[in-house]
Write a structure and sequence with these properties.
Length: 327
């Protein structure tokens, strides 16, 4: 039984959907709600959607709004967690939006905000694949590639809050153009977007592949993780080759990150890992181990798929909110 003011709502603000969980003090999920992200509207419209979603998920759990203690949001882009301001989120078209203050006014409870990748890593650290590690790196591969670092049990944000952008580590000088403007970032080589580009190029050059047919059958314009999984199951030669190369680059990235930070654990999360799990991570781990500078006890660095999937972000947001409320 949940008594008054005990539940917290965690929300992940994705580019395609908003996902909300309501969580009790034992970190049990009481209800989940999802709604599409309408990025065409102005920030105030999206903030109203977030307020409605928070109220919906509380209702779906059979609770009253008065039982809600706080709302905590994982938002894409540069977030100032101290003030709940989203500074730069190109996927949403947001710049300097005071999300915490505005949503707090609508819901009349404290609202916290943190970068979406950081909340995902906190979720995996406290409740998922990274449990027990003091030093942990998260690499989340999907449409793009994001990362987070926990050192001595605390999120490492960097001097300007801009740390852990592992997706933009350059692994191939003069490589393909990245969305950030540089060339050869891991995101431009191993994200789902990069893999789709390579699959399409291979098909254009005359190689046989079932990927476009799978996309058509499933009514998808993009190569989603489920399309990717189906193509691999069908042993599609183009998909296999493109995936193998992406895993190789991911392995080199993990090796570089480990050579620099020597964490106990690297969690590989995001849409691709969620779908493919160990079959995605195993070749990454193998390449990484082969490229550690110190190899004799490589296995002490665990390289594992995330275990919380889509719930990592909202659960991590709830955990961060609880820490902030205790301060
Ligand atoms: Zn980049």
């Amino acid at each position: 039984m949940v008594s008054t003011k005990e539940v917290i709502v965690g929300i992940d603000m994705g580019g395609t959907s908003l996902r909300a969980l309501v969580v009790n003090p034992q970190n049990e999920i009481l209800a989940v709600e999802k709604t599409p992200t309408n990025v065409a509207q102005k920030p105030d419209g999206l903030i109203r959607d977030l307020a409605a979603l928070a109220e919906d998920v509380v209702r779906a759990a059979g609770l009253r709004k008065s039982q809600l203690r706080a709302v905590s949001i994982g938002a894409p882009g540069a977030v100032d967690p101290e003030h709940g301001v989203v500074y730069h989120a190109p996927n949403l078209g947001w710049d300097a939006v005071p999300l915490g203050a505005k949503l707090g006014k609508l819901l009349r409870v404290p609202v916290f905000a943190e970068n979406d990748v950081n909340v995902g890593l906190v979720g995996e650290h406290v409740l998922g694949a990274g449990r027990g590690a003091q030093d942990l790196v998260g690499i989340f591969a999907g449409t793009g590639i994001g990362g987070g670092i926990i050192l001595q049990g605390q999120l490492y944000l960097g001097a300007r809050g801009a740390a852990a952008e592992v997706g933009h580590m350059i692994v191939q000088v003069d490589g393909p153009l990245c969305g950030c403007g540089n060339h050869g970032c891991i995101e431009a080589l191993a994200s789902r977007t990069a893999m789709e580009r390579d699959v399409r190029a291979a098909i254009r050059s005359g190689q046989k592949s079932c990927v476009l047919k799978l996309m058509e059958e499933r009514g998808k314009e993009r190569m989603t993780s489920s399309v990717l999984q189906r193509a691999l199951r069908k042993n599609d030669p183009v998909m296999r080759k493109v995936m193998k190369r992406a895993q190789y680059y991911m392995g080199m990235l993990v090796a570089s990150v480990v050579n620099m930070l020597d964490p106990e654990c690297v969690v590989i999360g995001g849409g691709i890992a969620e779908r493919l799990g160990e079959s995605y991570v195993a070749p990454i781990r193998k390449t990484a181990y082969q490229n550690f500078l110190r190899r004799h006890d490589a296995e002490r660095v665990k390289i594992v798929p995330g275990t919380l999937g889509d719930n990592a972000g909202p659960l991590g947001a709830v955990i961060l909110a609880r820490r902030r409320l205790q301060k």
